[in-house]
Write a structure and sequence with these properties.
single chain, alpha+beta, 7-stranded mixed sheet, about 30% helix
Length: about 475
């Protein structure tokens, strides 16, 4: 019974054999077959190594998705150099479509006064608001003060140079009649001139109407009203006076100038020709080189809605002269999100920056448009114009690991930028404006590799396909070149 069932069972199994054997006696080896076998092995080897290299190599894939970032604000980093604007007149303002309107923002912002070569010279403060000067109120009107004559001499191009030559020391108020600060200063300036006359101080006190004599004020490079400038031997002494506008403050300033000048003259008379005393020379109140350049840097937290931040020439104590306001600027750095470039050395070794460097090494350059405006200069060649910049901000997710790997994933912000010159009316002060808009879509950049089963499937296809194809070619060639039987 067992003997019968054993062979029968094996016969049933053999009937489903897909790989049936042909007896070796029925096969025939040929030179053509050997050649085709060598070709098959060669082709399989080449395709095998090519497929393995392709499997080991990863590609960068990009996709577009809705930005799911739910943070209400985003950080805006900037470092901008104003080529021809004093730090005292630099104001950073922020506006957006939600109604935000912040004027003269100072939090997390620092300013540096620059020299003529563009190097930092004087630190103008961090988180420092402009100090409002004290104005003096008077019972008398300006007309009443003028009843006994004007002590402050009205100057114009015909007598300006002669007035400076006549007075070794001169203190001049350059004003505009429409300027509210100038109007408040007028009676104080007249009383100051009367005080100088009463005390017999050797100072010429004058004033210039910069609306009537615009060219004279332009030649004197008056950037704001009122400008209170000290002159010595017909030369302006910088910086201009920017302290309180009271009779006592102005008189005290004039006395200090005269005292310094007298000390210098006394020293010069006593130590003339003595080189050993040269280093003890007192300060004569000479002019200090003052280039009107300012570097303003820091960061702002702005809402994730369309808006702008702009750098405007503005002061809490002056009205700016629109005819002399030049907003030529250089963008040293501008980016959104956590800063990842142009960092100080102490920030380069933080865990976050090590992670950023590791990820960015693997990202192609076309996906690194984080700060396309860096080191660009925007020069205006005439007054009453300024550059406006329009920026589209795109959230970008860089994923250089597995889909759930936070160790090799970061979120950065790329920028697309357009800039153009905008022209202003003569009465309006220009501003350098940076308008931004957050894209509702985000770009996902991630590594794309092949699955292991896709790789195995390809290998099987290579082996089977090559074997079958060359087998068909071999069979065809064998029939063609097979010797004919007689």
């Amino acid at each position: 019974m067992n003997n019968i069932s054993g062979p029968g069972r094996r016969s049933a199994m053999a009937s489903v054999d897909f790989y049936r054997r042909v007896p070796k006696d029925l096969t025939e080896a040929t030179s053509l077959g050997a050649f085709m076998s060598i070709c098959a092995v060669t082709v399989m080897a080449i395709l095998f190594f090519s497929e393995t290299l392709a499997f080991a190599r990863t590609n960068m894939g990009t996709s577009i998705a809705l930005d799911e970032n739910d943070q209400p604000q985003i950080r805006l980093n900037f470092n901008i150099t104003l080529m021809d604007l004093h730090c005292d007149f630099v104001s950073v303002d922020v506006w957006d479509t939600l109604g935000t309107n912040r004027q003269n923002v100072t939090k997390n912002i620092e300013k540096w006064q620059l020299d003529e070569s563009g190097q930092r010279r004087i630190f103008s403060g961090r988180n420092r608001e402009q100090r409002e000067v004290v104005h003096e109120e008077h019972e008398e009107t300006l007309e009443e003060l003028h009843e006994d004559g004007e002590q402050a001499v009205e100057l114009d191009p015909s007598n300006f140079a002669a007035f400076l030559e006549e007075h070794e020391m001169a203190f001049i108020d350059m004003y505009a009649p429409w300027c509210i600060w100038c109007q408040r200063l007028h009676p104080t300036w007249e009383k100051f001139a009367e005080e100088v006359h009463k005390l017999g101080m050797p100072i010429g006190v004058g004033k210039v109407n910069c609306v009537t004599h615009a060219q004279l004020c332009k030649d004197q490079k008056v950037m704001a009203f009122p400008t209170l400038r000290w002159y010595k031997n017909s030369e302006p002494i910088f910086p201009d006076y920017k302290m309180d506008r009271t009779v006592a403050a102005l008189t005290g300033y004039a006395k200090r100038k005269l005292d310094m000048e007298q000390k210098y003259k006394d020293w010069e008379t006593k130590n003339a020709g003595n080189p050993d005393k040269e280093r003890m020379r007192p300060n004569a109140g000479g002019s200090r080189a003052e280039h009107p350049g300012c570097q303003v840097s820091g960061h702002l937290m702005v809402n994730r809605v369309p808006g702008n931040f702009h750098i405007e020439a503005k002061s809490v104590n002056h009205n700016l002269n629109a005819a002399m306001t030049n907003l030529t600027h250089r963008v040293n750095h501008l980016s959104f999100g956590e800063p990842i470039t142009k960092l100080p050395p102490y920030m380069e070794s933080t865990p976050f920056m090590r992670k950023v460097k590791r990820v960015l090494k693997q990202v192609p350059e076309e996906h690194k448009q984080f700060n396309p405006m860096d080191d660009q200069e925007y020069i205006t060649t005439a007054f009453h114009q300024a550059y406006h910049h329009y920026i589209k901000v795109v959230s970008t997710h860089l994923n250089m690991g597995s889909s759930n790997d936070d160790v090799n994933s970061i979120t950065v912000y790329q920028m697309l930028e357009q800039s153009q010159i905008v022209f202003y009316d003569e009465v309006n002060v220009p501003e350098a404006r940076f308008s931004y808009d957050m894209s509702p879509m985000s770009v996902v950049v991630q590594k794309e590799g092949r699955k292991w089963y896709d790789y195995l499937t390809s290998l099987c296809a290579i082996i089977g396909g090559t074997f079958t194809t060359l087998g068909l070619i071999d069979a065809t060639l064998y029939k063609v070149f097979k010797p004919k039987k007689l």
